[in-house]
Amino acid sequence: MSHLTGKRVAILASNGFEESELLEPMRALREHGAQVDVVSPEQGSIQGMRHFDKGRSVDVDRDLAGADAADYDALVIPGGLFNPDALRHDDNAIRFARAFFEAGKPVGAICHGPWVLVDAGVVEQRELTSVPNIHRDLENAGARWVDREVVVDQGLVTSRTPKDLPAFCAKLVEEIGEGRHRGQERSA
User: Fold this and answer.
1) Whose CA is closest to 76, among 182, 180, 168, 140?
2) Is 124's pLDDT higher than 60?
3) Catalytic residue numbers?
4) What gap in Å lies between CA 11 and CA 29, rounded to an integer?
């Protein structure tokens, strides 16, 4: 299983990420040969959540302030309520996420993760999904929101909740394996 050998993927996360939405994509990507780095504005480790209960912590591999999207082939943004809410107010996180779109690189976001993409200004005229309670935020930013387990739009992979992780992970692997997507390129 080395479909992604040579690919490097950033998982952008902060304290309060939904544990399964970081760990499951990380596992799937590594099983397919990708190198995966947790990129965070925090240092040391970050606290995961299982809904509203504390979950596992994970080590941070790269400080967001020093991270460069050019070093990565793809980006994954896990959800949870607290993680994306913190990231969408972080200018470095917004710049980092936007750079993947500008370069046409695959991006995956699940649950509340698309909130970061709203603030990055990259969802207009894109079809995507998310946890249902943020669909109005996405629509107000110009996205076409649909209620499906996984949606792929020119290299942008989105899903709703942890129950959608098998479909989300499979599409992430597929899209990252395909590489850059001309239709993904956006400038904000």
Assistant:
1) 168
2) yes
3) 111-112
4) 11
Q: Which two tokens stand for residue 157?
A: 């992979």
DSSP collapsed to 3 states, 43-68:
CCEEEEEECCEEEEEEECCEEHHHCC
- Which contiguous run of DSSP H or E holds residue 1? none
What share of the chain has pLDDT > 70, as a percent? 95
Q: Are 138 and 114 in contact (CB under 8 A)?
A: yes
The pTM of the whole model exceeds 0.85: yes
Alpha helices in the chain (DSSP H): 19-31, 82-87, 91-102, 114-120, 135-140, 165-178
Q: Reduced to 3 states, what is the DSSP secondary structure of residue 71?
A: helix
In which band, very low, low, confident or very high, does the pLDDT at 20 lie, cut at 50, 70 and 90?
Answer: very high
Q: pLDDT value at position 188?
A: 47
Tokens of 42: 């925090």
H/E segment holding residue 151: strand 150-153
